[in-house]
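testing teh design pipeline on a random one, pls ignore if ur not involved
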């Protein structure tokens, strides 16, 4: 029984410490938005990945970086409307 409580408390600690791990009230849209933002931040941080994207899209690195920054604002579109209960 104590093992189950220990795992649960560790999960709560991780969820409070790191934003992207989610919690019980995290919606699908929030989860996907965090995943997209993490991916975009990784592409921006790894110069070789940015170079690869610029070659594939036939754009300059600055243009690719600008496009990634623009998509960082709302990577999955506007949030869905919450139902009124």
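output:
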């Amino acid at each position: 029984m104590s093992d189950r409580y220990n795992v649960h408390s560790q999960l709560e600690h991780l969820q409070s410490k790191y934003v992207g791990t989610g919690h019980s009230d995290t919606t699908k849209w929030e989860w996907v938005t965090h995943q997209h933002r993490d991916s975009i931040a990784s592409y921006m941080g790894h110069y070789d990945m940015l170079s690869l994207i610029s070659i594939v899209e036939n754009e300059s690195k600055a243009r690719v970086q600008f496009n990634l920054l623009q998509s960082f604002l709302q990577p999955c579109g506007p949030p869905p409307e919450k139902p009124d209960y």
